Amino acid sequence: MSKQLRVGMVGYGFMGRTHTNAYKRLNDFFPVEHRPVLKAVCGRNEEKTAAFAKNWGYERVETDWRNLVRAKDIDLIDIGTPNDTHFEIAIEAASNGKMVLCEKPLAMNVAQAEEMTRAVEMAGVPNMVWFNYRRVPSVALAKQIVEEGRIGRSFHYRATYLQDWTISPDVPQGGAGLWRLDVNAAGSGVTGDLLAHSIDTAMWLNGPIARVSAMTKTFVKERVHAETGAVQPVGIDDACMFLAEFANGSMGTFESTRYARGRKNFNTFEMNGEDGSLYFDLEEPEYLQFFEYKQLQSGKKMESHLTGWRKIHTTNSEHPYMSHYWVPGTCIGYEHTFLNALADFVAGIETGKPTQPDFRAALQTQRVCDAVISSAKQGTWVETGAE
Ligand SMILES: NC(=O)c1ccc[n+]([C@@H]2O[C@H](COP(=O)([O-])OP(=O)(O)OC[C@H]3O[C@@H](n4cnc5c(N)ncnc54)[C@H](O)[C@@H]3O)[C@@H](O)[C@H]2O)c1
Q1: Are 100 and 90 in contact (CB under 8 A)?
Q2: Would you say the CB of residue 132 lies under 6 angstroms from ligand 1?
Q3: Among residues 132, 147, 168, which one ends one of the domains?
Q4: In this structure, are 72 and 205 located in the same domain?
Q5: For a pocket test of ligand 1, which of 81, 101, 112 has the largest count of ligand atoms closer than 8 A to its C-beta?
Q6: Which of 8, 79, 142, 170 could form a disulfide with 68 if both were Cys (CB 3.0 to 4.6 A apart)?
């Protein structure tokens, strides 16, 4: 018999939509026992929230998240609101015994992330952070290739995450849609918003980042605040570059900006090891590029006239997640990364093997983000303390 998973969604913006889509499609594609029930969605504007609820099929609307996290008919609280709200909602949800799914970055800073991690662990509630890029089949295949030992000793890790939407000084900061530019709502700029993804993927593939040396820039120093109309200093980092040393001794470079004209969501990584290399680009998500130097089965090097980068079309049923979808050669999309993440989370509840990244894993990413910001301020290398 199927079990209900009664969902309380906080926020009905970009992530409210991607997550809700995942709840609706879960049982169509994945053979899990739990059936999500869209119980309630919460937003501050009743009319807009009700319109969202009607469109996506939520049973009811709440205008205060405190009522939602206490509601008896909710099993799972999903936090899809700006970063400054994650802390309070997650702590209250956990203390009311709810499962907690939270958007990234987990928190505004390490102190908050530590308390949130303690709260879910003390309550013993299943938890996950939506670092959805781990669930791109090509990225999950990269993880499989690393775990199979095909990259060997790691030397280099290189990540970029580039956008171009804040170049105009006329873009305001704050309020709906533009809270990412307001340091009080976002905590940081591209570091928490974009690099958090790159850092999560990097540490998943290549292990903990031990120390960082960073530089950040704020190109537009003042912007009008969308809510008050006042011209205010900009407190976020518009761009960030940092050097990293991983605990395994390899070197990393990370670059992120919202000022790379023409780049919309250019999220790439490359990893170079003794036995092979990997390259991924989110603009061609169905491909993973792999350079194989040593063939594992024979232990021999590739014959040199046959070497070259292999562009793997990650659409076979043997590839991660793909057996749940269509026939080889056909692709899935951005929205499926959230569906795959949800499927892993629910499977984790059912098998008793919690999925990753949970709050504790996201705390490690927060440690690196905080170290990056403080390194940029101090102009020195900073140890991250990430495990
Ligand atoms: N995993 C990803 O790839 C990804 C992508 C985008 C955003 N995010 C993260 O998701 C979160 C939300 O981002 P978004 O792009 O969906 O933002 P958004 O602005 O599109 O939506 C935010 C929603 O939160 C609501 N909200 C704000 N304060 C609230 C409060 N106090 N109570 C109830 N509702 C409130 C807003 O009304 C809106 O519906 C952020 O933490 C962001 O970093 C993650």
Answers
A1: yes
A2: yes
A3: 132
A4: no
A5: 81
A6: 8
Ligand 1 proximity of 133 Cβ (cutoff 6 Å): no
- Which helix or strand (DSSP H or E) is residue 213 part of? strand 209-217
- The verdict on the CB of residue 15 being under 6 Å from ligand 1 is yes
C-alpha distances (whole Å) from 202 to each of 76, 159, 190 are: 29, 8, 16
209 with 88, same domain: the answer is no
The residues near 112 (Cβ < 8 Å, ≥ 6 apart) are 86, 87, 106
User: Which atom of ligand 1 is found nearest the CA of 45?
Assistant: 37
> For 195, how many CA atoms within 13 A lie in the half-sphere containing its CB?
32
Residue 185 lies in a domain: yes
Ligand 1 within 6 A of CB of 104: yes
Q: Which of 110, 132, 154 is the last residue of a domain?
A: 132
Query: What count of residues does the chain have?
Result: 387
Q: Is residue 342 part of a domain?
A: no
Q: Is the pTM of this model over 0.85?
A: yes
Q: Is 269 helix (H, G, I), strand (E, B) or coil?
A: strand
| Total structural domains within the chain | 2
Asked whether residue 138 is domain-assigned, the answer is: yes
Tokens of 32: 């899990």
CA of 79 to the centre of ligand 1 (A): 8
Residue 187 included in any domain: yes
* CATH number of the domain that residue 200 is part of: 3.30.360.10
Shared domain for 162 and 112, answered yes or no, is no
Alpha-carbon span 96 to 56, nearest angstrom: 26
Tens-digit pLDDT string for the chain (387 aa): 579 999 999 999 999 999 999 999 999 999 999 999 999 999 999 999 999 999 999 999 999 999 999 999 999 999 999 999 999 999 999 999 999 999 999 999 999 999 999 999 999 999 999 999 999 999 999 999 999 999 999 999 999 999 999 999 999 999 998 999 999 999 999 999 999 999 999 999 999 999 999 999 999 999 999 999 999 999 999 999 999 999 999 999 999 999 999 999 999 999 999 999 999 999 999 999 999 998 877 778 778 888 899 999 999 999 999 999 999 999 999 999 999 999 999 999 999 999 999 999 999 999 999 999 999 999 999 999 999
Read off the CATH number of the domain in which 116 is found: 3.40.50.720
